[in-house]
What we know:
By secondary structure, the protein is an all-alpha fold. It has one domain. Helices cover about 60% and strands about 0% of the residues. α1 packs antiparallel against α2 (about 30-40). The relative contact order is 0.15. Residues about 1-20 have low confidence and may be disordered. It is found in: Membrane.
Amino acid sequence: xxxxxxxxxxxxxxxxxxxxNAQYLAINPDEIAKLQEESKKIPYKMEIVWRxxxxxxxxxxxxxxxxxxxxxxxxxxxxxxxxxMYVLGGFGITAGAHRLWSHKxxxxxxxxxxxxxxxNNIALxxxxxxxxxxxxxxxxxxxxxxxxxxxxRGFFFAHxxxxxxxxxxxxxxxxxxxxxxxxxxxxxxxxxxxxxxxxVILSCFVFPTIVPVYFWGESALVAFYTAAVFRYAFTLxxxxxxxxxxxxxxWKPYDHSISPVENVFxxxxxxxxxxxxxxxxFPQDYRTSEYSMKFNWTRVLIDSAAAIGLVYDRxxxxxxxxxxxxxxxxxxxxxxxxxx
Length: 340
């Protein structure tokens, strides 16, 4: 992407309804240009992390067993429970690590923060502080070498390859400059980071195995491979599709100059996160898209929590601001698809 198109993209971050002067994590075109020039001077050779390759290989082998058992061996309550665990773990990423902690797009009281942190453990995608740091890098420096899953390095790299190789030096350098004080001062996140290993082992693998065995007499192996291993792998790929498919396959109703797109499949698979062209255009809007609530399950969760007083200060882009953006950099024909 050229500096000019990034400059155009930056113009959209004018003002949120809540009165803030600029959208959080908005692109700075001058900084992007500087990073791109610096990257050319950095000697870099991709180094495979074979331990991660082995771990992901074993996970996908186990997930294949789990998928077979889910279709042919598992009891119906196990199938439903597997789906429920997938949705709950997904909320821990989408409503928690992503919209609340990475983008600060709404505020939540302590019980809600604890609830989302516990759900996040089910997903096992690094602790929230580390997840949010990588995601903030992705938004501030999209499609540069400071972006952990830089799409210019190919679909597979953006999907999962970035977890199989050493990080580019610019990711580490840029990430170290981010202000993470809001995350490091949150006692809920500090607790998670301190106790992360036992929390994720219990939440991601032990709990999903014990419940089907104890409550409806499922085989321990079937419960483990379906509700734990297969569900975990599926959650990972649903999340990774936002980094890959949602930058390649879809339409751009809000900004033609950026790589993120609107993708209904990823919206459904990732419980409401597929409105990616909208999200990168208005990164602090808690909805992350204009898809209706039948697709945006995460918005339903946040709005429901707000209705009982656990969530407040939900940030949105005004309709006037969205209309201006569509007029100047998007497409009204494509915009209608996002209003389904």
